Structure to design on (698 residues):
């Protein structure tokens, strides 16, 4: 019989941040268990449900009994099963008895090669799984595979789960599937909303699950449906107020996991709290209270917020008033921290950073700040003309960049580091560029984040990231696998994006050397420059691939180990344009051939091209053409006209083809051979002036 299957686990309030993942995995594992036993088609759809107090799955067209299947069972090698006379050996008779296979079945055995030996296989009919016998085991296996970091026991039971479990429903159509799990016997009884539903709810059929919970239990069982309902209600309320919602990453999912019957109300707080930086108020409302702050059309915080409640009532004044009373102390704390912090300047807090350990091998945060100050100034000097104030401003920004770490506000809300530093720097009458750099030196914090703007901010941001990269590489803390405890991959991507997208004409190798120079002797105990440059190029490879560049073009450019990262996009564009030329394929192949020849040759046997030693017309023609092209190519490369450089190089194809058709490079005469190798080396230098064209060869 085919019917819809329902499995529900009724629990106490589940961890909200993990709820959707728990619901998805619970359902996926149960469905996989059913499919493995042929009780449902592997591709058959299913629906998962997750509320604060339940995990459930509903699967249509589940069989009560799976169809019988034919299976071949390996018995033993023929040489072991039969004696010299072809009669069953005692070993075979014992094996057959253990499997309840009559000896009379021996003629039906199939002989197959199993590895290097001929082996007997027995064709048996395997009875299909019975849902009633296997379902409890499938659910138990699913529970073991849930992503639960900590289990708990409840009452005097030895059973364990992420939260106490109080009910188990296993329905197949109208029938209860008997089973026991976590000390509970399966049934058809569930519970609805903790306050809006009265008592137990009896489920008539598996198909009626969601509808029954909605009508009788005031529960929207589907996580996705509940999330969409909340999103629509939030948008509608905000529109009524002419406001927009400040959304926090993951907050919508979290509130969806906190309610079963969502209703959105408008709360309000005293406007006097708006004197506090809005980032502080927004964070405390979102993080501590799970509210959705409202902004006006200019992005300024309003003294109103949206509450996602689990209660639908005719008059919500008690709910709204209660939430206002709860949020007020939080906002008062934020105001207190803000006012207290402003009593001391950022500069006066620097000494406290000496008591904050950055890393036991890299010293204190104050020691790091001193390195950042010097490095940011040096970077800014590379960016700015002589006499500019930018280096001094960059040094000041780097000096103050970490001072807000020892403020009360950042101590309470670490997410505000940099943000509060900017507010406090402006309060201290620091230059606006310095204040902006204090905030933006952390950028980009994540993929797609905005970059710091201006040379002062960029210098501070580069200094911060390069110091971290050099420091941790220098003590051997290089990321491996998925482990990156110090965020070095993020720092590397930040450096690359700043250099490439700003863009900034800075040499990455020189920046790494500058950062290394800031550490005291003996601190950096591991090699840094080459490993770090390799690490950066690996990150750059991924960054370019994500941007849509072709892999062969990326490899052609990165094979040159470029350190002027701002020029990489132009090189890639030039390679892409070169690949469209009719000469591209042949020149790429020739370049590959040249590279192979030069790699096999002893460098000591390669000379400088000498016109007097050329014997063949083809090598003379190639040399003369190369002499004409070289200054053009060098000029174009110097002016960053990479596409024109490659276009000029493409014109040498005919001479290259003729050379390989008519000239024996590895001539027996040493001087002739050295001269021809020298010609190829000179040609290789020009062909690879923009990118390693051999990487484009098929």
């Amino acid at each position: 019989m085919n019917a819809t299957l329902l499995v529900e686990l009724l629990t106490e309030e589940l961890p909200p941040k993990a709820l959707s993942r728990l619901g998805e995995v619970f359902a996926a594992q149960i469905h996989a268990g059913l499919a493995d036993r042929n009780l449902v088609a592997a591709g058959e759809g299913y629906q998962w449900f997750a509320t604060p107090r339940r995990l459930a799955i509903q699967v249509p067209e589940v069989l009560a009994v799976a169809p019988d299947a034919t299976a071949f069972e390996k018995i033993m090698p023929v040489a072991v099963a039969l004696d010299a006379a072809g009669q069953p050996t005692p070993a075979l008779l014992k094996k057959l008895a253990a499997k309840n296979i009559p000896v009379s079945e021996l003629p039906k055995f199939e002989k197959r090669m199993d590895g290097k030996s001929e082996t007997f296989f027995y064709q048996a009919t395997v009875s299909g799984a019975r849902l009633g016998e296997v379902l409890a085991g499938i659910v138990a296996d699913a529970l073991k595979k849930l992503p639960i970091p900590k289990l708990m026991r409840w009452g005097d039971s030895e059973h364990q789960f992420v939260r106490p479990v109080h009910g188990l429903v296993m329905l197949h159509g109208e029938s209860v599937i008997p089973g026991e799990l976590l000390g509970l016997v399966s049934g058809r009884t569930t519970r609805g909303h903790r306050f809006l539903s009265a008592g137990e709810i009896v489920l008539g059929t598996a198909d009626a699950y969601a509808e029954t919970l909605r009508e009788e239990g005031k529960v929207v069982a589907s996580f996705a449906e509940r999330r969409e309902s909340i999103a629509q209600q939030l948008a509608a309320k905000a529109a009524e107020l002419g406001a927009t919602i400040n959304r926090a990453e993951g907050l919508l999912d979290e509130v969806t996991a906190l309610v079963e019957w969502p209703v959105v109300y408008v709360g309000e707080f005293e406007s006097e709290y708006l004197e506090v930086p809005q980032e502080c108020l927004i964070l405390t409302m979102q993080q501590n209270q799970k509210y959705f702050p409202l902004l006006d059309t200019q992005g300024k915080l309003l003294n109103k917020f949206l509450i996602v409640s689990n209660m639908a009532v005719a008059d919500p004044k008690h709910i709204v008033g209660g939430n206002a009373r709860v949020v007020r102390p939080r906002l008062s704390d934020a105001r207190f921290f803000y006012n207290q912090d402003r009593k001391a300047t950022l500069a006066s807090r620097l000494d406290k950073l000496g008591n904050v350990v950055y890393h036991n091998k890299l010293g204190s945060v104050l020691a790091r700040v001193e390195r950042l100050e010097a490095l940011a100034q040096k970077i800014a000097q590379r960016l700015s003309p002589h006499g500019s104030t930018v280096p001094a401003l960059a040094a000041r920004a780097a000096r103050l960049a970490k001072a807000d770490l020892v403020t009360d506000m950042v101590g309470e809300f670490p997410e505000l580091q940099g943000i509060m530093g900017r507010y406090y720097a402006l309060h201290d009458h620091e230059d606006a560029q310095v204040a902006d750099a204090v905030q933006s030196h952390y950028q980009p914090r994540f993929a797609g984040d905005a970059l710091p703007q201006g040379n002062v901010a960029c210098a501070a941001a580069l200094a911060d990231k390069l110091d971290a990269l050099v420091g941790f590489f220098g003590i051997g803390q290089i990321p491996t696998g998925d482990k990156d405890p110090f965020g070095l991959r993020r720092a590397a991507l930040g450096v690359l994006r700043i250099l490439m997208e700003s863009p900034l004409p800075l040499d990455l190798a020189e920046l790494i050397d500058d950062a290394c120079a800031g550490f005291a002797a003996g601190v950096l105990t591991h090699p840094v420059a080459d490993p770090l440059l390799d690490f950066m190029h690996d990150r750059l490879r991924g960054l370019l691939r994500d941007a849509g560049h072709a892999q062969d073009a990326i490899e052609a450019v990165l094979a040159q180990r470029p350190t002027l990262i701002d020029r990489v996009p132009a090189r890639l564009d030039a390679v892409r344009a070169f690949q469209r030329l009719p000469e591209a394929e042949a020149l790429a192949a020739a370049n590959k051939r040249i590279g192979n020849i030069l790699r096999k040759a002893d460098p000591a046997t390669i000379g400088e091209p000498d016109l007097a030693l050329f014997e063949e017309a083809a090598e003379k023609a190639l040399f003369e053409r190369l002499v004409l092209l070289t200054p053009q190519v060098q000029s174009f490369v110097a002016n960053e006209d990479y596409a024109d450089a490659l276009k000029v190089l493409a014109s040498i194809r005919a001479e290259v083809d003729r050379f390989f058709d008519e000239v024996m490079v590895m001539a027996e005469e040493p001087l002739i051979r050295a001269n021809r190798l020298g010609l190829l080396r000179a040609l290789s230098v020009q062909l690879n002036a923009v990118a390693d064209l051999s990487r484009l060869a098929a």
Observations:
- The mean pLDDT is 93.
- The chain has five domains: 2-66+130-217, 69-126, 223-341, 359-548, 568-696.
- The longest helix spans residues 317-341.
